[in-house]
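Posting here for the record, re: iron/sulfur cluster.
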Amino acid sequence: MPAGNAAEVSGARLARALIEWHARCGRHDLPWQRDRTAYRVWVSEIMLQQTQVGTVIPYYERFMQRFPDVGALADAPLDEVLHLWSGLGYYARARNLHRAAVQIRDEHDGRFPETFAAVAALPGIGRSTAGAILALARGERFAILDGNVRRVLSRYFGVEGEPAQRHTAEQLWALSEACTPAEQVEVYTQAVMDLGATLCTRRNPACERCPLTQTCLARRTGRQHELPAPKRRPERPLRRVYMLAAQRADGAVLLERRPERGIWGGLWCLPEFDSAAAAETYLARLLGAAAALRPLAAIEHAFTHFDLVITPLLAHCSAYDGAPDPAQHAWYHVSAPGALGLPAPILRFLQRLASAAAQTQLFD
Ligand code: SF4
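Prediction output follows.
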């Protein structure tokens, strides 16, 4: 039998087994499975990139309550969107979601686009996400290849090579196409994603409970832990920065809006500097204050490609007489935070700073 036909036969068997399994054991009560519109599925797919279902659910519910449709999202200020996203991380996702909603309002009469090409052209939506939205919300036959599906297919078909490499990715896309059924595509799509999330997990896959256990190549050859081939990671660079925590007598701390591009883009954060001297100059220029800077215990945060170590510099500046630019600066008080999006590590730092007991721990 030609290789292509073999993949189709094997793919059809996989799809059948997964659809049956999903009817018995799949997740059917997730919030985005109710009232399945393209908008609701789209938001869930974006939130679920890099984030587990359990973490996403409360964020998703709050987001839908505030932005029940694409128009509400498009008309909202970006700050409010980032505020509701605070803590989920990977904030480019929220910025792209908002940009795409504006695009749908302005260029598609407020209706989610119909064609695959138009969906895939929206900011933050790649081939796999576009396929997932159209398959799950509209039952259209499109293949997907997110991280979970890559793992399932690599193991089931014994695909060697790093999934991120072009040749391997093309092979996996072809297999995903061969597996995607013409009927019940929405059930199959949900099932293959669920299998990767719940049984065919990265560490310790539960093969004994898997509906593919009889035919999975990795299982039959005992290679579940070798496939897919792990990504070769370059050494993680370490970046060190200083951040100014200018605090008024009432406890409010000065925040600055970060540029759109780069880490924590568009979020409100402590002003960042390469050196303590630069922070001092900024303090004097912006607030007309010449307070002593007090280094506090470092904040460490791991990004995907590097580690960040922040040395916060506390300055009590009750006597400041400058007026920061309201478009770029805000005085932030944890007890009256307002609708601003803050990076989670910075929010945690401010909460610790606000607590008198914790403050004593901060001074190393
Ligand atoms: S048998 Fe094991 S390795 Fe194969 S798909 Fe199922 S869980 Fe994954």
